[in-house]
């Protein structure tokens, strides 16, 4: 719920063209992905990144506007969400460890 509220907050800022907080948020999400345990990484992906995709998409704002702000590990997980929702992988993270991420 907190991460959904953050997604809504960022949407409001984005709609106002106020992106001052976005770099700090991107850095924090990246740290969660790199340094967190399984539960924390899952929250960063399913709680936050998917929250951005859902909240922004349901508001008529293209969630892909947020993607360029993501740092490398978070961007990998964002792409996994997209692949999952497109039906190209059976679960989020299915190809994250593959050398040949051909589904990406």
What's the SSE blueprint?
Elements lengths: L1 H14 L6 H14 L2 H21 L13 H14 L19
Q: Please provide the count of β strands.
A: 0
Spatial gap, N to C terminus: 29 Å
**Beta-strand content:** under 5%
Taken together, the total number of domains comes to 1
Cα-based radius of gyration, to the nearest Å: 13 Å
Shape: globular
SSE series: HHHH
Overall average residue pLDDT: 93
Count helical runs.
4
**Biggest sheet statistics:** none
| Poorly predicted tracts of residues | none
State the helical fraction. Answer: 55-70%
Structural class: mainly alpha
3D architecture notes:
It is a single chain. The chain has one domain (2-85). It is 61% helix and 0% strand. α1 crosses α3 (38-58), α2 runs antiparallel to α3 (38-58) and α3 packs across α4. It is globular, with a radius of gyration of 13 Å. The longest helix is centred in the middle third of the chain and has 21 residues, at 38-58. The chain is mostly helical.
